Protease PrsW
Amino acid sequence: MLILSILTAAIAPGVALLTYFYLKDRYDTEPVHMVVRVFLLGVLIVLPIMVIQRGLLLWWGDQPIVFAFVISSGVEEIIKWFVLYHIIYNHTEFDEPYDGIVYAVAISLGFATVENVLYAIYQPASFGSLLGRALLPVSGHALFGVTMGYYLGKAKFASAASRTRLFLLMSLSIPLLEHGVYDWIIGSGTTYWIWFMIPLMIYLWVKGLRKMNRANARSPFRMLLREEEVNL
C-alpha cells in the first residue's frame, strides 16, 4: 500500500502540470488522445535516452560542464525535439502557436514522470523528497517544454523561410541551454545551490507564463471567436 502511495505521488505532479498547461489553451484545445499519445512518447524515449547517456558517460566521464550541457540536457532535449519535429510539427492538429507548447510540455512531462517513478523506486523516496522533485525537476522539464514549444509554434507559423529556420534553431538551443544551467546548478556540489535555483525557477515560470500568453494571443481562432461574438 505504501509503494502504491509513493508511485501515485511520483506520477501525480506530471499529470497535474500537463492538465494545467492543457487547460491554458484558450481558443482551440487539442484532442485529448493526441496529448496522451505525445505524453506516452515521452515515456517511451526514456530508455534510448538512458542508453545514450550511459554510453557518453563511459566515453567522456563525469565532467560537470560536459554532463550538464551535453550528456544530460543535450541528449534529452535533442531527442525530445527530434520526436516532436518528425511526428507533431507537420501534423494537422498543430494548427495554432499554443499547440507547440501543449505537445512539447506533454513529451517533456512523459519523460519527467518516468524519471520521477524510477527515483521513487530506486531511491529511499519520502513524500517530502517527491514534493521537492515536483517543484524542481518535474516542473523544470515542463518549463523547458514551454520554451521549446513556443519557438516551434513561431517556426510553424512564420511568414518567411529564414525566420522558420531561426525559430527551429531557437526551439532546440534555448531549452537546451536552460536545462544545462539547471543541471549545472544541481551538480555544482555547493551547499548553497538552492539560492541559485530559486531565481532560475522564478525566471523560468515568469518567462513561461508570458510565452503562453503570447502564443495564445497569436491564435488564428482568437479573431474567429471575436467575429462570432460580434455576429451574435
